[in-house]
Amino acid sequence: MPTCQNCHQKWTWTQTIKKTMTLMPGMSCPWCGEIQYQSKKSRKRAPFLSLIVLLPLLLNLFFNLPSAILLGLIPLLAIIVFIIYPFFIDLSSTEEFPF
């Protein structure tokens, strides 16, 4: 779980989901109110997590899975990625640009 760089409080899963589902790049800490940003390393990991959802399509190329299994795996993997995503978030006190 992410930890505030200012007050060193660990955020809960619910707080992390609420804060990351906004369009604003800065997230205020629920404990101290300081603005926190997702770290550069954390932002680079996010696309790889979303690729897990497309894994059944890759498996279909090699194993020719039935459509029912394929359509059932995609939402299941999407839910799993949604649940584990907050565990991969790191916070930074300053906004780090990805380049």
Give the topology, please.
Elements: H1 13-20, E1 26-28, E2 35-38, H2 40-51, H3 55-63, H4 67-84, E3 91-92
Antiparallel strand pairs: 1-2, 2-3
The tally of domains stands at: 1
Strand-residue fraction? 5-15%
Number of helices: 4
**Structural class per helix/strand content?**
mainly alpha
Distance between the termini: 25 Å
Largest sheet: 3 strands, antiparallel
The topology string of helices and strands comes to HEEHHHE
Radius of gyration: 17 Å
> Which of globular, elongated, flat, extended, rod-shaped describes the shape?
elongated
Q: How many distinct beta strands?
A: 3
Task: Compute the average pLDDT.
Answer: 88
- Unreliable stretches covering 5 or more consecutive residues: none
> Strand order across the biggest sheet?
1-2-3
Fraction in helix: 40-55%
Structural description of this entry:
- The protein has 99 residues and is mainly alpha-helical.
- It has four helices and three strands, in the order H-E-E-H-H-H-E.
- The model has no long low-confidence stretch (mean pLDDT 88).
In summary, what is this structure?
The protein has 99 residues and is mainly α.
